[in-house]
Amino acid sequence: MRNGKAYIDSLKDDREVWMDGEKIKDVTEHPALRPAIDATAHLYDLQHEAATKAALSWEAPELGQIIGRTFQPPRSLQDFQARRAATRIWMETSCGFMGRAPDFLNTVLMSFKAKSSFFAMQSIERQQAVEHYVDSAAREDLFLTHGLNDPLPNKTKARHAQEDAGVVLHVEEETSAGLIVSGAKVVATAAAYANDALMFPMPANQVPGDEAYALCVSVPIASPGLKVICRGSFMHPGRHADFPLSSRFDEMDSVLVFDRVLIPWDRVFLHGDVGLINSMYGVCKVREMTAHQTNIRLQIKMEFLYALLVKIARMLGIEDTPWVAQALGETATWVEVLRSSIATSEHEAERDPENGILYPRFESIGIGRVLGPRMYTETIQKIRRIAGSILMQAPGSLSILDTDAGALIERYYKGTGVSAREKISLARLAWDVCGTEFGSRHALYELFYAGDPDALMARFHKDYARRDLHLEVFERVMGRLDGTA
Fold first, then answer.
1. pTM greater than 0.90
2. 35 Cβ contact partners less than 8 Å away, ≥ 6 residues apart
3. What are phi and psi of 202, to 5 degrees?
4. Helix/strand/coil (H/E/C) assignment for every residue in the chain
5. What is the pLDDT along the chain (485 residues), one digit of tens a residue?
6. Phi, psi angle pair for 227, to nearest 5°
């Protein structure tokens, strides 16, 4: 397993990254990217610290070496608990605000290898490519991002039916060395400072005619012809006291633009088969495995927001006010819903007879994805409502306390049992969560994290495995009641 320095050194390559019209020479030196790079490097360093090394590492029998815990496929309840502990250690470092830390794509890769027989449906070479790549990524401890969404100018039309059908990532040419691809993928979070990008289409709704777009591949970010186009930065370099989250954890979102980029065959996992690419996500049970990781992250984020709400309420002396107490109680309930759903999904995990791996019960683990948009959106609104005017009247910087106005600030800004500095610090933190561009980005991220929230709820009903059981009980009970009426 590598450490933080090795990770940072791996980014000093020929990648082409653009931000605000500027081509960045070295992402590790850019003030808008370095904080997130440092936050990621810290995760790698934790793999070598005495207090966390055992929890974050796993001796892989197939590889004969110690690798990251998040590559470990769960074969027992204890394995699930070990994965949960590792995810929690990493996610707590950012209070859950780094949704694209290495553990997420590690989980996807683990899912692919566990069901590598699926890729053999195209060819044994594609199966071997998956297995070899996942093993290499685990050995090298790579940081992967992904590009799943397509730039569709007209969302009512298929990929091949767009006015400019070349905007979506597609195969231009098949060669002996690999596939030549062009087009784009959007919402590639952390691409500017990742090692590789894993790409496949989501949603999995390709149709006949989309064969050129039916791709599952991995590509180094530094590949010739690949451009990473970053959005504007939401961070405030060095202003940790005034922007405690956005100055440290602004994950950079990007568009990946491919101009005849070569994808070597050992990085091509599927191509040209609409049926296989549409079924890959479900058959490989990526949804179940990633939902376990993302629910843990959401739980940690909700725990943090709950604690923030309690701190604000106490600072204002309103914790026991009925409507505030109700809001706090509801937030605590959501935290426990997430905690319970994770534990239940582990205890009711189902073993796949093909590979012996346990997969979390989706009816339980899916709760976070279905309710997450509501939980987060309403909790952010609670912060605004409970904090009220302190969000607007807090000074723009704590440095004012060190000026001639400091004595006035100390007198007029203090809260219940807290100093002016403590009150302003808490107000600045709350504003970073719910008022800044960083906070708005996270509200949007959680709202659409797993797709359209209404479609997610409808899909939960469609896929609900216990539906027939409940209907059977209903009919049995009503039949008995009708017979005795």
1. yes
2. 235, 237, 247, 248, 249, 250
3. -140, 135
4. CCCHHHHHHHCCCCCEEEECCEEECCHHHCCCCHHHHHHHHHHHHHCCCCCCHHHHEEEECCCCEEEEHHHCCCCCHHHHHHHHHHHHHHHHCCCCCCCCCHHHHHHHHHHHHHCHHHHCCCCHHHHHHHHHHHHHHHHHCCCEEEECECCCCCCCCCHHHCCCCCCECEEEEECCCEEEEEEEEECCCCHHHCCEEEECCCCCCCCCCCHHHCEEEEEECCCCCEEEEECCCCCCCCCCCCCCCCCCCCCCCEEEEEEEEEEEHHHEEEECCHHHHHHHHHHCCHHHHHHHHHHHHHHHHHHHHHHHHHHHHHHCCCCCCHHHHHHHHHHHHHHHHHHHHHHHHHHCCEECCCCCCEECCHHHHHHHHHHHHHHHHHHHHHHHHHHCCHHHHCCCCHHHHHCCCHHHHHHHCCECCECHHHHHHHHHHHHHHHCCHHHHHHHHHHHCCCCCHHHHHHHHHHCCCCHHHHHHHHHHHHHHHHHHC
5. 999 999 999 999 999 999 999 999 999 999 999 999 999 999 999 999 999 999 999 999 989 999 999 999 999 999 999 999 999 999 999 999 998 899 999 999 999 999 999 999 999 999 999 999 999 999 999 999 998 899 988 988 999 999 999 999 999 999 999 999 999 999 999 999 999 999 998 888 999 999 999 999 999 999 999 999 999 999 998 899 999 999 999 999 999 999 999 999 999 999 999 999 999 999 999 999 999 999 999 999 999 999 999 999 999 999 999 999 999 999 999 999 999 999 999 999 999 999 999 999 988 998 888 999 999 999 999 999 999 999 998 888 899 989 999 999 889 888 889 999 999 999 999 999 999 999 999 999 998 888 888 888 998 998 898 999 999 999 999 999 987 65
6. -115, 135
